[in-house]
TrEMBL record:
Its EC number is 3.5.1.-. The lineage of its organism: Eukaryota, Metazoa, Chordata, Craniata, Vertebrata. Pathway: Sphingolipid metabolism; Lipid metabolism; sphingolipid metabolism. This is Alkaline ceramidase. It catalyses: an N-acylsphinganine + H2O = sphinganine + a fatty acid; an N-acylsphing-4-enine + H2O = sphing-4-enine + a fatty acid; N-(9Z-octadecenoyl)-sphing-4-enine + H2O = sphing-4-enine + (9Z)-octadecenoate. Its cofactor is Zn(2+). Its main location: membrane. Belongs to the alkaline ceramidase family.
């Protein structure tokens, strides 16, 4: 008989960490614990960040925790689809108009395009869920390409610094993810199969820089009268900081 889609270990994917080694109810202990990093870091994101996007990222963190706790088929789909929906929300609201396809004339039309694409992608995700994670990771290359295009037009060194730090964390994150998938035999041989849990922490750090960067470019396009500036809390000199956006109000003409 086919296992229940809610049953433990019914997922198509099993990460490198051993199952039920530290708990009888948590399949992958460290991956589950570090999955909470995905949404606990959102407490540090700017309050002006769109509420819908914050909720989407919170769900992604919650579903990631559930998936690694159970390794169930439903948990796997919820984990992957929550990331897809989060990306869809981000693209819908913040994708720059200058990069719209020529057939798209307004943000409303782009909403429809994003929605239809997301629905189709969601349905296709059920065909081979094990492939979904690779496809979702490939979207990052498009984000990096857009960032490169925007940096070519920007002379602010602080923006370039934030982008560089974002890319650094992303490279470390994707390296950990790939290492866990492709070199699991080696990490198990030396009893250190925890690189997917590193992925959770590192991708959260990358998002911590990515979100303000997206907001910076969005303000530049949507509110040209304001001049956005990058700030760092608690100090620029700290090795790990929380970036934020400061808006300089336009000077009123007499």
């Amino acid at each position: 008989t086919m296992p229940s889609i809610f049953s433990y270990l019914s997922a198509e994917v099993d990460w490198c960490e051993g199952n039920f080694e530290r708990s009888k109810i948590i399949a992958e202990y460290y991956n589950t614990v570090n999955g909470t990093i995905l949404f606990s870091f959102l407490l540090l994101t700017p309050l002006s960040f769109l509420v819908l996007e914050v909720l989407s990222l919170l769900l992604a963190g919650i579903f990631s925790t559930y998936f690694h706790m159970t390794l169930s088929y439903v948990g796997q789909l919820l984990d992957e689809l929550s990331i897809l929906w989060t990306l869809a929300v981000a693209y819908s609201f913040w994708y720059p108009k200058i990069y719209f396809p020529k057939c798209i004339k307004s943000r409303k039309q782009f909403f429809w395009l994003s929605g239809i694409t997301t629905v189709i992608s969601t349905l296709m995700s059920f065909i081979k869920p094990a492939v979904n994670a690779y496809v979702l990771n490939c979207i990052a290359f498009h984000v990096l390409y857009l960032t490169w295009r925007e940096l070519k037009k920007c002379n602010d060194k602080r923006v370039h610094r934030m982008a560089a730090v974002m890319v650094m964390w992303w490279v470390l994150a994707i390296s950990s993810w790939i290492s866990d998938r492709w070199l699991c035999w080696f990490w198990q041989a030396i009893n250190f199969p925890y690189f997917h849990s590193f992925w959770h922490v590192l991708i959260a750090m990358s998002l911590l820089y990515c979100c303000p960067l997206v907001m910076y470019f969005d303000v530049t396009y949507e509110m040209p009268a304001f001049k956005p500036k990058i700030g760092y809390w608690p100090s620029d000199s700290w090795p790990v900081v929380v970036p934020y956006i400061v808006l300089e109000e336009p000077h009123k003409q007499c």
